[in-house]
Amino acid sequence: MSDETYYGQASLGPYELLELGDWTLGSGQVIHDCKLAVSTHGILNDNRDNVVLVPTWYSGSSRHVADTYIGEGRALDPKRYFIVVANQIGGGLSTSPNNYPDRTEFPSTSISDDVRAQERALSDHFGIEKLAMIFGASMGGQQGFEWAVRYLMKVERLAVLAATPLATPYTKFLLKGMADTLTTQDSSVDAAVRRHAMWWTTFGWSPDFLRDEDYNALGLEGIDQFVEEFMVPYFAAMDPRVLLAMANKAIAADVCSFTGKPVDITLGGVTANTLVMSISEDRIFPPSEVAAHGKLIPSCTTRELKSRHGHLAIFGADPDFLLSLDAALDSLLSQDV
Amino acid sequence: MSDETYYGQASLGPYELLELGDWTLGSGQVIHDCKLAVSTHGILNDNRDNVVLVPTWYSGSSRHVADTYIGEGRALDPKRYFIVVANQIGGGLSTSPNNYPDRTEFPSTSISDDVRAQERALSDHFGIEKLAMIFGASMGGQQGFEWAVRYLMKVERLAVLAATPLATPYTKFLLKGMADTLTTQDSSVDAAVRRHAMWWTTFGWSPDFLRDEDYNALGLEGIDQFVEEFMVPYFAAMDPRVLLAMANKAIAADVCSFTGKPVDITLGGVTANTLVMSISEDRIFPPSEVAAHGKLIPSCTTRELKSRHGHLAIFGADPDFLLSLDAALDSLLSQDV
Fold this sequence. Notes:
Strand order of the largest sheet of chain A: 1-2-4-3-5-6
Radius of gyration of chain A: 26 Å
Helix content of chain A: 25-40%
Oligomer: homodimer
Largest interface: A-B, 152 and 150 residues
Shape of chain A: elongated
Low-confidence stretches of chain A: none
């Protein structure tokens, strides 16, 4: 592992490489001569009971974690704790696609592979059998949850920031879109229509709607059926050129083009009695964004309407939402102008 | 325009086509023999002052709008109002890429092109010079805002649902990702790295952070510099294979794989003293999702930490956020186990 790469000691060190030998993954595949890169901070006490483990997040490293979270007077204080920051297998510093001898064959790994490797390395190299705390953010939190489930008796405290113990439908689809940015995509129209439908599945509705399978009220059973029998066919009937024509309009939308003035001046000149409504779980036009613009209009009332349907509450499948919308419109229509 | 397509009368009618002749767009390009497809509901009164205009949303049609929002006893009551639902130019029913004679040359259009066409068509075909209300959802709302800015004296009331008067940085980047699903993408590594950096710009931070240019506190000036000098270089230094290895782990994360039991049973068995924290504006692991899982763990405290930095508050550039995080970790570490 060269020190000259982004992942080397010069850039992201210091770290040490704990040997795991040939490491068998949960899938049954083997990573040969597997090494776990860790940085340690502070001193392991005689009882070995002052250990804080911090696994890394997506794109992160032990260096990022240490710089941000560890320091004297901080919660993660190396004067009090022996803090081990464990870099992910596959994350660039530990054994990973960039430093594996046979670069074409680095196997897929899972959160549990990291957690098992950390447990083994802490035990073998430091004699650690108990963690005073695990703290993990984002993917580090996913590893923290796995520790607390898998090694019940070894985890005294678990602190998780900005993570869930499993990828929910929303987060799974969202992250799939992120991974897709890095890969060459099928250029067929069918594939494009499917990607587009998955985008709308992810962002059109709300995380709660997807997680709690609210779509079953539409007569569907399970996420696969929702995607295959509702979202894909809905958009597949349309012409992609038409969808693109509309999308590009929405992206370029700007009322200031007409006035040539800043948005506060432009909206400050609106004379219509105005009602600006947002939807509580809207991922596309978030309530904070809608309200921030509504308040720039002199005669404007802003309201946040509740719906677990997110942006696609506009489709009208949430009857309570439609009732609250109609009441708001009635109120505006009855205002004298 | 054939009636047999998805956009035809059989599927999305009835609608009528209002002739605009050769219609000059704001860009200077011309749509030849431009037609605006509208459906009307109710009767225009003698004073022509009972008009409600409803422009359509992305992928929507006058049929969708009428089915969802118009009806006797509803706010949009055809017994009281003359309701005109105007389909977008380019939206499939009005003159659009799918029905334009020279299909390769349908020009780009803008929100203001729709609004100008609607104003002209309402005046020429119905003698309408004043709107009792415009109601628009999503892209329909973008058109509503444009009406209220452009034709001040013609708009008595404006009701907008789930839209902003300009595409904010967050919504612009989000919708760009949506449009990208429909197009063939550059398969070079450089392009992939850039797409990936744009994804993180969109979802890593919060809409408020992007809109109010909070990143300028990091020493940057404007969104272009933020993207080019911070987000792209940050990820460009990394190995895409490493990023993909991590992304695929995050997507597959599932603590239930180990227990083989449902998530409530799996988390119900956790014995660690647990603290589960979310970040207020997190788009990747939303607070509602984090809290929903935290409450399944017996000895768990859940907290929502405030930060305008969204998910990437984990980077530590928000000092107040770090203070609240350290306080929460101190509190957990001081708990007896």
